[in-house]
Structures are given as structure tokens and as C-alpha cells.
DNA sequence: TTGAATTTAATTGCATACAACCAAATTAGC
DNA sequence: GCTAATTTGGTTGTATGCAATTAAATTCAA
């Protein structure tokens, strides 16, 4: 039983036992699957989820966009400039508050939605999860993300 | 019902409905939680999971290491050079096959494991999942990663 | 009302990720 | 044995991610 205890202590630092690595690896593999479909549209994965927010909102401040995507300005600023250069969005300061950078979907950006519409179906096929199972997994991950962000554990600062 | 159909079509491109974004966002938030603990050790998250494999194997080829971590040489090569510079590993060509770069844990690398041993417990506290629930989520993600990599769907190339 | 605190983007620096390409070593066929 | 194909790392270029800092605009407070 001493030996068993030894193995258990070691187990917490084994890669295969890490939830973090399971999430991290899965994320990268999923995004890799999107690439060929997104290459056809000329956008990256991060640009794709950014456009997704714009297809819902049409106009949104960079700050709120960052909150939705959980990305900060260091990531968003260059990404939004690229989307502007590609003609999918416009970037202009708010009249009421010059600090706010308002992002607006262009007609070309709206048109891109039509091209993107088939992607989720193609990916769903890859994933091979039942719809209800996929939804359950997604909601579990959302809850986990929320818990981690709120961090109600005093142990870790 | 026409209106309902319209809403359903739109739903597939909504950010909140994407499993990919749930995984992607969760991954980044988890890694963000690791940062303060890993900063104390002077390593990054990717270096941490790399060391995790070395703590199990002691010696491993760069190729097999990449297969374990699902990372390619473009990511691993500079990362391993940094770990070598920090004294945690050695990099040397195999005698039998000069193409193979053998990575070996040093004493300092082994010692680092002791410092890292508490991290999983601290993170587990943040995550706030029941053990069995965390295991279930982890295994679900592993299966999903496997399915995506194998990609038994002819629809997406 | 005016100087301090706050908010919001942008910038900088560092560390991934990964596709595409390249070079060296090895193996396979003939 | 010798050449072609394969294997394995390394390099390059592009695009994130994110902490830390800066700068401009706005709000708050005495």
C-alpha cells in the first residue's frame, strides 16, 4: 500500500490526468479543423469568432467586444485593423465618448456571413457528438470558465 | 414558424452556441490561472506540461514529446532550447540515429517537480469541480480530441 | 472648476502555435 | 552499393495571447 500511495502522489503531475491539458489540446485540435474552411474565406479562427459577434450586433465597442471574446486590446487591436483592411468592418471613435472605438459591420462583412453559414455544419460532422451531448459539454465548459474567472477560492490569491 | 426557422438558422453562427469557443475560452482562462503559480517557478504553461512529460519519462525524443503534447517542431524547438538554457533538460542527438534529438531531465529539472507538486491542488481549488465530475469532463474532452484528430467525416475533406 | 482618479485603446515585449519550407540522416528498392 | 523516398528537427513568417506601460478622454471631488 506504500507503493500505491507513491503512485497516487505522482498521479497529480501526470499529463494524462490533467484537465487543463485536455482542454488546451482539444481547443487547438478543434481550431485546426476550422482552418481549411476559414482559409477558404481568407480569415483566421480569431477573426471568425470576432465576426460572429459582429453578425449578431452590427455595431459594438472594442471594449464590449473584448469582454464577449475574453480577449484584451493587445490581441484585438491588430486583429481589428486587419479586418478593417479586409473591408469587413469599420473602426471609428464614438461621438459621445472619444475613448470608445466603435466597430461596425460593413456590407462585405455581412455578406461574409453567407459564406460562413455552412461551416458549423461541416464541423459538427467532424465532432461526431450527439447534439444534446455537445450542448451538455459546452454548458459544462461555460460554467467552468465562469467559475475559474470568478475564482472563489481564497487559496490561490 | 417561418420566423422560428429563421432564428434557428441564425443560431448556428451565434458565439454563445459554439462548442469551439467554449473550449477555446476555457483553455485560455485555465492557463491564465496557472500563470501566477508558474511565474513563481520561472516557467510558462507550455514549459510546465513539457516538464510533466519529462518527470514521467526522464528521457524522450523530441518527436515522441511532440506527439504527447500535440505540438510541432516550430513550437517545441525554441521551447526546448529555453528549458535547456534554464538547466532543466539537456538536448543531444541519439547515437543510434542522428536524426533523433533526445531530451533528458537534469537534476535541476527533477528538483523542479517538488516545487510544482502543490500546483495541481491549488488549481483544483479554483476549478471547484467534484473530482468525479472533473474526470468525466476530462475524458469527454480526450474522446472529442481523438475523434477530431481521426476525423472520420468524409464531408470535411 | 480644476486637478486627481478612472476608463479605454494602443503599444511594446515575450512566448507560443503552426503552416510551409529546408537540410541532414536514415531506410528502402533495385 | 546507390539513389529515391522517408523521417526528423530546424527555420521562417504570420497570427495570436497577454502582461505591462502609455496616452488620451472622461468623470469625480473638493
From TrEMBL, chains A, B:
Listed Pfam families: Staph_reg_Sar_Rot (PF22381)
Location (main, coarse): cytoplasm
HTH marR-type domain ranges (all copies): 16-150
Keyword terms: Cytoplasm, DNA-binding, Transcription, Transcription regulation
Record-linked InterPro entries: HTH_MarR-typ (IPR000835), MarR/SlyA-like (IPR039422), Transc_reg_Sar_Rot_HTH (IPR055166), WH-like_DNA-bd_sf (IPR036388), WH_DNA-bd_sf (IPR036390)
Keyword Transcription regulation among record annotations: yes
Signal peptide: none
Keyword Transcription regulation: yes
Protein name in the entry: MarR family transcriptional regulator
Source organism (scientific name): Fusibacter paucivorans
